[in-house]
């Protein structure tokens, strides 16, 4: 999956970027971008507690590349259990984040294209809901609302009005309550060598 998008620059010359699946070679560029866009406190957020030691959900990590192939945007989705339903069963969902665009490329629609690509692919893969912590004024245009996450909590401090959800399948989060817990694929750690 790749989408090419032309957007106008301030000088009215076209700027092209591509939305594509993240690959292992993007790690250093992605982490550098996140440091620039989100600052040094990004690893202390509640969402990070759910991502630590995990791999993104299968097929749900995307980057935006400029015409030279540089990573200028990123978004990833993570498997979580969104509390339990009325019958006591875990409610599988996705946690979106972080979404970031290189500050030098803001205002070109890159974040919106990354969001649409991530939501569409999550829907195509049969997921029921996506949750995130973010600015409601930005994310409501994609269908995320605080009311859908009202009975769920994050592991650690979070602002209730910034905890938002989008149901990809109608009614998926009805009756879901409790704390989000990481699920899905774990990050493989290198084996520990024992001293002889």
Automatic annotation (TrEMBL):
Record carries keyword DNA-binding: no
Domain N-acetyltransferase: 17-169
Pfam families in alphabetical order: Acetyltransf_1
Keywords: Transferase
InterPro entries for this protein: Acyl_CoA_acyltransferase, GNAT_dom, MshD_Acetyltransferase
GO MF, one example: acyltransferase activity, transferring groups other than amino-acyl groups
Protein name as catalogued: Acetyltransferase
Protein source organism: Sinorhizobium saheli
Biological classification of the source: Bacteria, Pseudomonadati, Pseudomonadota, Alphaproteobacteria, Hyphomicrobiales
């Amino acid at each position: 999956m790749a989408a090419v998008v032309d957007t106008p620059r301030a000088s009215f010359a076209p700027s092209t970027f591509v939305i594509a699946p993240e690959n292992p070679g993007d790690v250093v560029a992605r982490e550098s971008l996140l440091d620039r866009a989100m600052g040094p406190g990004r690893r202390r957020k509640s969402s990070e507690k759910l991502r630590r030691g995990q791999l993104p959900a299968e097929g749900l990590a995307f980057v935006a590349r400029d015409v030279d192939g540089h990573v200028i945007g990123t978004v990833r989705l993570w498997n979580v259990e969104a509390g339990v339903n009325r019958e006591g069963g875990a409610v599988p969902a996705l946690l979106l984040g972080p979404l970031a665009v290189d500050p030098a490329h803001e205002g070109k629609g890159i974040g919106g294209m990354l969001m649409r690509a991530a939501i569409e692919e999550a829907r195509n893969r049969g997921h029921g809901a996506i949750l995130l912590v973010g600015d409601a004024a930005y994310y409501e245009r994609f269908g995320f609302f605080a009311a859908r996450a009202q009975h769920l909590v994050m592991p650690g401090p979070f602002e209730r009005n910034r905890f938002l959800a989008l149901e990809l399948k109608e009614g998926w989060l009805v009756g879901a309550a409790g704390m989000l817990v990481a699920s899905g694929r774990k990050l493989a750690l290198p084996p520990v060598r024992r001293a002889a």
